[in-house]
Design goal:
The protein is built from 14 helices and 13 strands. By secondary structure, the chain is an alpha/beta fold. The chain has two domains: about 180 residues, ATPase, nucleotide binding domain (Nucleotidyltransferase, domain 5); about 180 residues, Nucleotidyltransferase, domain 5. The strands form three sheets. It has a six-stranded mixed β-sheet with strand order 3-2-1-4-7-13.
């Protein structure tokens, strides 16, 4: 079956689309990527989505307008990857506006903005969306959802294998060995902490909006890392919390950046940290959080890196420096490009929905049991 996956992450910088073909056993499918495309959000839409994700109040009419614009952008991204309409099904994550993980005595909830039936109508094919709600209803985190796809699509090697996505948030998957006494161990996965959320916001602030990100980490590379501050940050509650855990801009957003910049400014004239030093420290902080998580458990033989942060040379250098004993490699070496991994995962999750196959892993999300994920919307005439 040919399925189109659409993914826009916490960075809210654009939409990744992958057209893939799946067949065979749902738990270990045969698959191949047929086409892909990365479509940036228009600047105005990007700004509105980031502001909404930071909790900026919106009138009901503004929320509707934003949902419509977001859905139309998703449709454009789908057409860019599949201009001939070869896909039979679409899996779309939508855009996360707010994510509230479960706490003691309080269920988790998550809001992925998308008008699913409208997208189905625009593309004239069924769309599976709202992938987190079923897991949340069962007491899970609702995220991350990609580890289940990693296990099915890539599988294990002779030792533990890790996959790291460096989007707005850094999240890890740990796959057990393909042989040996740990081969039956559960797949693990969680959100480590910030990746590009704080970095991109800092770059935009320091450049007065002239830059959206630090290309190749060049600006950060020219600065000095405040190692003592990083070690202090790693003692904060989220980083000491054991999985399952998930997070987003709600915790690592603009107010969090301002607090960290104030701490970095201590001792500097004018109470302002040099931009290069701040970016160097924030970049190294992302790598340090990942390394600290890996040190707490079984160290993997390799760490395969994807997402926009994989193109940040300085961040990759910091990962290799801090994840000693683990080979840090780009996932692209296995034929899945940086921008393809998560879109491919949501194509698989949509196919699993079609097959009635569970898409969640309680070992990752903490849910009471696995569940089929997503809600299906079909244009008129195609049934429900």
């Amino acid at each position: 079956m040919r399925v189109l996956g659409l993914m826009s992450g916490t960075s809210a910088d654009g939409i990744d689309a992958v057209l893939a073909e799946f067949s065979g056993r749902p738990d270990r499918p045969r698959w191949r990527i047929l086409a892909s495309a990365a479509t940036p959000y228009p600047a105005d839409l990007h700004q509105r989505l980031v502001a909404a994700g930071q909790g900026q109040p919106l009138a009901a009419a503004e929320v509707l307008d934003l949902a419509e614009a977001l859905t139309e952008a998703q449709a454009a991204a789908a057409r860019a990857a599949d201009p001939d309409g070869r896909s039979e099904l679409v899996g779309c994550h939508g855009q996360t506006l707010w994510h509230r993980p479960p706490e003691a005595g309080r269920r988790g909830l998550s809001w992925q903005l998308l008008l699913g039936p409208l997208l189905a109508q625009l593309l004239e094919r069924p769309v599976v969306f709202d992938f987190r709600s079923a897991d949340l209803a069962l007491g899970g985190q609702g995220a991350p959802l990609v580890p289940a796809a990693d296990a099915a699509l890539l599988g294990g090697i002779g030792g533990w294998r890790a996959l790291l996505n460096l989007g707005g948030i850094a999240n890890l998957t740990l796959l057990p060995p393909s042989s040996g006494p740990e081969r039956s161990a559960p797949v693990q996965g969680w959100d480590c902490g910030p990746a590009n959320t704080l970095l991109d916001l800092a770059v935009q602030q320091f450049s007065d909006g002239q830059r959206r990100f630090d290309a190749d980490g060049a600006w950060a590379r020219s600065g000095r890392i405040d190692e003592a501050r990083i070690q202090a940050w790693l003692q904060e509650p989220y980083f000491r919390q054991a999985p399952p855990k998930s997070t987003g801009r709600e915790l690592f957003g603009r107010s969090d950046l301002h607090r960290r910049l104030e701490e970095l400014a201590e001792g500097h004239p004018g109470k302002t940290p040099p931009p290069a030093d701040a970016l160097a420290t924030l970049t190294a902080f992302t790598a340090a959080a990942v390394a600290a998580d890996l040190e707490r458990g079984t160290r993997p033989l390799e760490l395969l890196v994807a997402g926009g942060g994989a193109r940040n040379g300085f961040l990759m250098e910091q990962l290799r420096l801090r994840c000693r004993g683990t080979a840090v490699l780009p996932l692209a070496d296995l034929g899945i490009a940086d921008e393809q991994r998560e879109a491919l995962a949501f194509a698989l999750l949509a196919w699993w929905h079609q097959q009635g196959h569970p898409g969640s892993l309680p070992s990752v999300t903490g849910a009471a049991r696995p569940s089929v994920l997503g809600v299906r919307a079909a244009p008129p005439g195609l049934g429900t």
